[in-house]
């Protein structure tokens, strides 16, 4: 039986900024449109958190039963390490995804935007088939695209729309920035796992691009949000506050750009996530000002 601490680690708390940042940035864009709503913001946040926990447990289960995690370098995986039975992890994934669905239904009912149910269903299916099913798209190099769409575009724009009932160029800018950060986290993760993924037959985008190509992709992705900050400065010069998070990425950029391997890349995931969350918070403050 896995301990409570192992279940928490299995939920991958380092990835939680990927769930929080889209909602925070979406709140900022909604404030700029005079459409902010506390209840809807909180519900959007709970949906996002439940969804990412569900994704993480689903990935743990699917990768574990395939044997992908047997020789991995990163943090604990419940099934791969044998700490928990596959059925228990599967149940945890379904509970989290089910909770995301119920909370999403409540949010849709409050907003009256029933067509958003379709988007919610796509998000839940995307969470499962990332590594689940006979042909998981995460094993064919589409994981980065999915993360950009779900935790960037859908997360930010959905948060804005359920509050303001409309979108803006500012909202799209925030969505691109957060999506780039979030994709950067996954890219750093997949860069670390290139050797073991190749051995396991997992053809991520990183294994296709190779070591040098993946490192370049990461550097481009983490630069995009700061370009967005400059563009948002035309809306409000306070948007340049986002640049205050750039120092958080210095070690990560040095590690990735300097050719670090294996465990030396693990802090890059954490630091990229913190930079993303900090950028979202400061940008939201800027848009509120």
Automatic annotation (TrEMBL):
<comment type="similarity">
    <text>Belongs to the MenA family. Type 1 subfamily.</text>
</comment>
<comment type="function">
    <text>Conversion of 1,4-dihydroxy-2-naphthoate (DHNA) to demethylmenaquinone (DMK).</text>
</comment>
<comment type="pathway">
    <text>Quinol/quinone metabolism; menaquinone biosynthesis; menaquinol from 1,4-dihydroxy-2-naphthoate: step 1/2.</text>
</comment>
<keyword id="KW-1003">Cell membrane</keyword>
<keyword id="KW-0808">Transferase</keyword>
<dbReference type="GO" id="GO:0005886">
    <property type="term" value="C:plasma membrane"/>
</dbReference>
<feature type="transmembrane region" description="Helical">
    <location>
        <begin position="167"/>
        <end position="188"/>
    </location>
</feature>
<feature type="transmembrane region" description="Helical">
    <location>
        <begin position="88"/>
        <end position="107"/>
    </location>
</feature>
<dbReference type="Pfam" id="PF01040">
    <property type="entry name" value="UbiA"/>
</dbReference>
<keyword id="KW-0472">Membrane</keyword>
<dbReference type="InterPro" id="IPR000537">
    <property type="entry name" value="UbiA_prenyltransferase"/>
</dbReference>
<feature type="transmembrane region" description="Helical">
    <location>
        <begin position="41"/>
        <end position="58"/>
    </location>
</feature>
<dbReference type="GO" id="GO:0042371">
    <property type="term" value="P:vitamin K biosynthetic process"/>
</dbReference>
<feature type="transmembrane region" description="Helical">
    <location>
        <begin position="113"/>
        <end position="130"/>
    </location>
</feature>
<dbReference type="GO" id="GO:0009234">
    <property type="term" value="P:menaquinone biosynthetic process"/>
</dbReference>
<dbReference type="InterPro" id="IPR044878">
    <property type="entry name" value="UbiA_sf"/>
</dbReference>
<keyword id="KW-0812">Transmembrane</keyword>
<feature type="transmembrane region" description="Helical">
    <location>
        <begin position="216"/>
        <end position="244"/>
    </location>
</feature>
<protein>
    <recommendedName>
        <fullName>1,4-dihydroxy-2-naphthoate octaprenyltransferase</fullName>
        <ecNumber>2.5.1.74</ecNumber>
    </recommendedName>
</protein>
<dbReference type="GO" id="GO:0046428">
    <property type="term" value="F:1,4-dihydroxy-2-naphthoate polyprenyltransferase activity"/>
</dbReference>
<dbReference type="InterPro" id="IPR004657">
    <property type="entry name" value="MenA"/>
</dbReference>
<keyword id="KW-1133">Transmembrane helix</keyword>
<keyword id="KW-0474">Menaquinone biosynthesis</keyword>
<dbReference type="InterPro" id="IPR026046">
    <property type="entry name" value="UBIAD1"/>
</dbReference>
<feature type="transmembrane region" description="Helical">
    <location>
        <begin position="137"/>
        <end position="161"/>
    </location>
</feature>
